[in-house]
Design goal:
The protein is an alpha/beta fold and about 400 residues long. It is built from 14 helices and 14 strands. The N terminus is likely disordered. Bound molecules: adenosine-5'-triphosphate (ATP) and magnesium ion.
Length: about 400
């Protein structure tokens, strides 16, 4: 085997410069079987990005990156949360991992709107009562809602959903100038399993923490979209942001959806006001976050950011166990590769670069580096200087 080069150290600054230079403009894919050193390599690389004063945002599914020094760390459910009002009704249902048909989703959308009225316009406790409320009043309330009024109390969502089942009397007492005069009990019963499932999930500690449903006098929590905005618009002295999503590690579907939304938000903020400075976006264990079917890929935030990001100076660094985890359409967007030990030739064959024949026998901490347009090189990853692990040699 070739002599290993010194990799990701200051002595090999040119490698890092080539790899991280934003003008170079290619995303980086880090692959390798479990335990081959992807996370360690990424941590080491992040240390280098810090030395170069480059900005990085890490989405951390397991909390492994919280030990990275000189980073601002937000842990979902701890010192940050997601505002439920930033989600559409469909996204909210998907996050809660509840299935609902179209009529139910429409009810949910209306329930959220009504709660937004209650919270931002009426400033009243409990659900927004629809029983006997004149239609004209409701229309007036709805028109008063602006984009600023997205916030609402999730704790009232179940009661509000019941309120959405208010209908006029079915006989000549019916008053069609009002939202309704009685509860449609048959419809409530029909949807009861779904309503109960929503109520269950809203009581689940993980989702309570995600949406910051509980009162907590004295402790400050920041909203995730706001954190991203601040970080992207204002150059702070700390250029590394870690967003720890491990709260949801048992809820893969929710984690996937939320990460997708956050990446779309980064893209949206950049499109609206491109501050210019390059940002590296790091997603470890990206396979967790990718949709299973190719159909949904186009709507996924990872895919959108990978495709659109380069012209906005957003560079993606993804790690995943097998290159086959990534749909070919996504894989082909990565110009730079860092290949740790792989399981089999099929995985190697899925990668465009030549010279990877040895990838099935690479020891931990070694990888093949394929920089776009250059001959692949074998590299050794040195542990970061701050590393405290027992593995330290
Ligand atoms: N460059 C290195 N030098 C020395 N030890 C290393 C190096 N890279 C990784 N290791 C050790 O190997 C083990 C696995 O590394 P790591 O967690 O980075 O692998 P991984 O590819 O991210 O695995 P997984 O897919 O399970 O997340 C760790 O104990 C780590 O300390
Ligand atoms: Mg790892």
């Amino acid at each position: 085997m070739q002599e290993a080069l010194d990799f990701l150290t200051l002595t090999n600054r040119t490698t890092i410069d080539r790899l991280t230079n934003a003008a170079f403009g290619h995303h980086l894919l880090i692959v390798g079987q479990t335990g081959s050193g992807k996370t360690t390599t990424t941590l080491s690389l992040l240390g280098q990005l810090q030395q170069l004063n480059q900005t990085a945002i890490i989405f951390d599914p397991t909390g492994e990156y919280t030990r990275l020094p000189n980073a601002i760390t937000y842990r979902l459910g701890d010192n940050c949360y997601l505002e439920a009002g930033k989600l559409t009704a469909d996204q909210l249902l998907a996050t809660l991992q509840v299935q609902g048909d179209h009529p139910l989703r429409t009810k949910l959308q209306q329930a959220v709107t009504d709660l937004q009225i209650q919270h931002n316009i009426k400033d009243e406790q409990g659900p927004y009562r629809r029983l006997n409320r004149p239609l004209a009043d409701h229309q007036h309330d709805e028109q008063g809602l602006g984009a600023w009024a997205s916030d609402f109390l999730l704790t009232d969502l179940f009661a509000q959903l019941i309120e959405e089942f208010v209908v006029p009397y079915a006989d000549d007492r019916a008053d069609y100038t009002r939202l309704g005069q009685q509860y449609d009990r048959a419809a409530i019963n029909h949807y009861w399993p779904v309503l109960a499932a929503i109520q269950d999930q809203l009581a689940n500690p993980a989702f309570r923490a995600l949406f910051d449903t509980d009162e907590h006098a004295g402790t400050m929590k920041s909203e995730l979209n706001f954190i991203l905005k601040m970080f992207l618009y204002h150059q702070s002295s700390h250029r590394t942001l870690v967003v720890d999503l491990s709260l949801l590690k048992d809820y893969e579907e929710s984690q996937r959806l939320i990460l997708s939304l956050l990446l779309k938000e980064i893209l949206r903020l950049r499109l609206r006001d491109n501050a210019g400075f390059p940002v590296n976006i790091i997603i470890d264990e990206a396979h967790r976050y990718l949709p299973q079917d190719e159909q949904r890929l186009a709507d996924n935030g990872i895919f959108q950011l990978v495709r659109e990001g380069r012209k906005l100076a957003l560079k993606m660094i993804l790690t995943t166990q097998s290159p086959l985890d990534l749909p070919a359409r996504l894989r082909s967007q990565f110009g730079n590769l860092l290949v740790h030990r792989l399981l089999d030739q099929e995985e190697i064959a899925s990668l465009p670069s030549v010279g990877l024949a040895q990838a099935v026998q690479l020891p931990v901490g070694q990888a093949e580096l394929c920089i776009f347009g250059e001959t692949p090189a074998l590299v050794k990853v040195n542990l970061p200087a701050w590393w405290q692990g027992e593995e330290n040699e």
